[in-house]
Amino acid sequence: MSLGPKRSEEPFSPTDLRLLSSVAAQTGLALENGRLTEAIKEEARAREKHQRELELGRCSRRSTRWFPGSIMRARAARHLE
């Protein structure tokens, strides 16, 4: 799809503007969904890495991160005691 000036060089009609606005809104949502999907994947990778470190006993108090909704910090603190 290509968006730009009309070939007829006439101004955009209200219908044209509604269509363009809809396409822009959907494009913005698709881009945001892609960004959020990547952020979720990165968070999952970080949690998996952190869990492996905890299981291997290589986690220190300085590297303990708080993950909202989890008890990772409490587990790490108990592990280090």
Write up what this structure looks like.
With 81 residues, the chain is mostly helical. The chain has one domain (14-80). The chain has two helices and no strands. The protein is rod-shaped and about 70 Å long. The model has no long low-confidence stretch (mean pLDDT 80).
Secondary structure blueprint with pairings:
Elements lengths: L13 H43 L15 H9 L1
Descriptors:
rod-shaped, mainly alpha, 2 helices, 81 residues, 0% strand
- Kindly name the structural category: mainly alpha
H-E string:
HH
Low-confidence spans: pLDDT under 50, at least 5 residues? Answer: none
> How would a textbook summarize the main sheet?
none
State the end-to-end distance.
60 Å
Count of DSSP H/I helices = 2
Mean pLDDT value: 80
Percent in strands: under 5%
- Please give the radius of gyration in angstroms: 24 Å
Domain unit count: 1
Fraction of residues in H or I helices: 55-70%
Number of DSSP E strands:
0
Tell the overall outline.
Answer: rod-shaped
